[in-house]
Amino acid sequence: MKSIFVAIALISFIMTTHAQTSTAADDAQIRELVKTMETGWNKKDGNLFAKPFAENADYVIITGMHLQGKAAIASGHQGIFDSFYKETSLKTEVQTIRYLRPDIAIVHIAGRLTGPSNGRQMDDKGMITLVVEKIAGGWQIDAFQNTQTLSSN
User: Do the beta carbons of residue 108 and residue 126 sit within 8 Å?
Assistant: First the structure.
């Protein structure tokens, strides 16, 4: 009887250790999606920015405009990179990753956009919410919502 409890404890330990390892790997892959967006922004490359998105992703920008699909996200961003955001920089920091299921997570990211744009020096902060999905090739962004953080000044 004692050996059964030892076996159950060992199996539980192995399963818990595996789950922690896979969550750490998933966290790292999700953080890499965010880093790719940031790098795409800072290189002013719309295709690189859009690379982590699903083909049919939903993207809601800070003004409430809704873009649908990776191609629209890429071309829309290339348009702003070539014009009024061409001298800006984006810095992101993942705040939380919450798994709804092993293959679906909600990610909250603090973002800061700095640099000159349309005659003013930007220093805008925002909160980005992502819905990400694990697929055969890794993780992808299915939905993106950007909300400006209002200053307390």
Answer: no
